Automatic annotation (TrEMBL):
KW Oxidoreductase (keyword) present: yes
InterPro entries: Ald_DH/histidinol_DH, Ald_DH_C, Ald_DH_CS_CYS, Ald_DH_N, Aldehyde_DH_dom, MeMal-semiAld_DH
CDD domains named in the record: ALDH_F6_MMSDH
Domain Aldehyde dehydrogenase: 18-485
GO MF annotation list: methylmalonate-semialdehyde dehydrogenase (acylating, NAD) activity
Keyword NAD: yes
Gene: iolA
This protein's name: methylmalonate-semialdehyde dehydrogenase (CoA acylating)
Key words, A-Z: NAD, Oxidoreductase
EC number: 1.2.1.27
Pfam families, per database record: Aldedh (PF00171)
GO biological process: L-valine catabolic process; thymine catabolic process
Major enzyme class: oxidoreductase
Length: 506
């Protein structure tokens, strides 16, 4: 690996000022298409976290009192700036993450939708009233901000996942501290610059960088009210337990092992395309990636044959347009790091040791200086194998074979995760049984990636989510607000009482 001559330092945003932290610990930020270091992320500790949270706490009273219409107008201006800089933002995602330009644009579109959702906050913050809930008593329920909110986000969607969080939190009247992944900090920094340009007051949005020490300081800070997290299941569990122990409300989205069930009546050609997009999109580095294809009845052989042919035809390589003139035509880009590429590739040997068959070996596509690994297909897997039980987070699709839909449903029941699941079929009865009974929170019928859009919650189940209120949609608004109920009685004045305003005749 080589280092470029000029390496940027990812700055922190604290109280409206871009600052560099004094630290001896740094994280290299790579361009996965080349293997070059393009930036460095400081590992901030408790002092930087204290500064950021204090800045957010200082800005909170005035921002919470700002009319919701004015807060929404900031989101409108922010959205316009995102559209103006759309290609720049997409290219930045590709440069620091490695996903293709098409995938980066799709990610950014989903982020823009979240800003649009937040811009509609005046309608969504309306309360409830009921006059005469008792004799002469009126009741009202209104939503208030919760306070200083924190977002801790992963590397795989450096633009979209932060946008799941802070637009809604800010539009609800909270202030925010974002801790982006130390592997992909540049997109978050650019979003912070655009927020400032949109007119967001100083201190309402802050950015700190770091790893474990930084996260622990955020989870335990007495002035933090709410924490949103997306990452691996082991860390999500720690975040939830630590945050709630210190009196914070927490939503923590973890990992997944998503099952895709292929019934014998499925259109194999269309199914193969959907499965490949699900398993190999973003190089498999997403919690909604298809991980285990469950072929029912005679669907197995034609499915595997189609997947192998599709995978062999995929164009895999560098996705950064500054590196390759063919970047726009790449079907799958590199993985985030070389050590991650080696970890993902190791599962192919593990699968062979466990008795599975590697029908397509993605290691044959690994070449050049970037972190490239091609698509893989592992056939004849069993529920006890590691490739089925563990989240690989890479372009490896395992294929299990069962005889009935009941057996396929049982595989879902035996999985510790519960993010998404999909069925490919032409049978309305099979689809109805599947969406009613499969043990996951997001279901697709002939849809490869059943990830909901901004208006619906991201409803992971089991060990894919820790908390009560999910990210996105109306649940996101509930998470970032607290309700206050007021009962009011205005007794009729006695005849002897003189009101200088209402009895004056003016």
């Amino acid at each position: 690996m080589t280092t470029t001559a000029a390496v940027a330092i990812a700055p922190m945003l604290i109280g409206g000022r871009w600052v560099e932290t004094a630290t001896d610990t740094w994280e290299d930020v790579y361009n996965p298409s080349t293997g070059q270091v393009i930036a460095r992320t400081p590992h901030a500790g408790k002092e930087a976290v204290d500064e950021a949270v204090e800045a957010a706490a200082k800005a909170l009273p005035e921002w919470a009192d700002t009319p919701v219409v004015e807060r929404a107008r900031v989101m409108f201006r922010f959205r316009a700036l995102m559209e103006e800089h759309f290609e720049e933002l997409a290219t930045l995602v590709t440069r620091e993450h490695g996903k293709t330009l098409a995938e980066a644009r799709a990610e950014l579109n989903r982020g823009v939708e979240m800003v649009e959702f937040a811009a509609g906050m005046p309608a969504m913050l309306m309360g409830q009233t009921l006059p005469d809930i008792a004799s002469g008593v009126d009741a009202e329920c209104v939503k208030h901000p919760v306070g200083v909110c924190v977002g801790i986000t992963p590397y795989n969607f450096p633009n979209m996942v932060p946008l799941w969080m802070f637009p809604v939190a800010i539009a609800c009247g909270n202030t925010f501290v974002l801790k982006p992944s130390e592997k992909t900090p540049l997109s978050a920094v650019r979003l912070g610059e655009l927020l400032t340009e949109a007119g967001l007051p100083d201190g309402v949005f802050n950015i700190v960088h770091g790893a474990r020490a930084c996260v622990e300081a955020l989870l335990t800070h007495p002035k933090v009210a709410a924490i949103s997290f997306v990452g691996s299941t082991p860390v999500a569990k720690i975040v939830y337990e630590t945050g709630t122990k210190h009196g914070k409300r927490v939503q923590a989205a973890g990992g997944a092992k998503n099952h895709l069930v292929i019934m014998p009546d499925a259109d194999i050609d269309q199914t193969v395309k959907q499965l490949a997009a699900s398993a190999y999109g973003c190089a498999g580095q997403r919690c909604m990636a298809g991980s285990v294809a469950v072929a029912v009845g005679g669907a197995g052989d034609p499915l595997v044959e189609g997947l192998v042919d599709f995978g062999k035809a995929m164009k895999v390589g560098p996705s950064d347009p500054a590196v390759s003139s063919a970047a726009e035509t790449i079907g799958m880009g590199p993985l985030i790091r070389d050590d991650h590429r080696k970890r993902v590739a190791s599962y192919l040997d593990i699968a062979l040791q466990d008795g599975a068959t590697v029908a397509l070996d993605g290691r044959q596509s690994a070449s050049g200086d970037g972190f490239v690994l091609g698509p893989s297909v592992v056939d004849h897997v069993a529920p006890t194998m590691r490739v089925v039980k563990e989240e690989i987070f890479g372009p490896v699709l395992s294929v299990a074979r069962v005889e009935t839909l009941e057996e396929a449903l049982a595989q879902g029941d035996g999985c510790e995760f519960g993010n998404g699941a999909v069925i490919f079929t032409q049978s309305g009865h099979a689809a109805r049984e599947f969406k009613r009974r499969f043990n996951a929170g997001m279901i697709g019928v002939n849809v490869g990636v059943p990830a909901p859009m901004a208006w619906f919650p991201f409803t992971g189940w089991n060990r894919s989510f820790f908390g009560d209120l999910h990210i996105q949609g109306t649940e996101g608004i509930q998470f970032y607000t607290r309700q206050k109920v007021t009962l009011t009685r205005w007794p009729k004045p006695s005849e002897s009482h003189h009101d200088p305003v209402w009895r004056s005749g003016r």
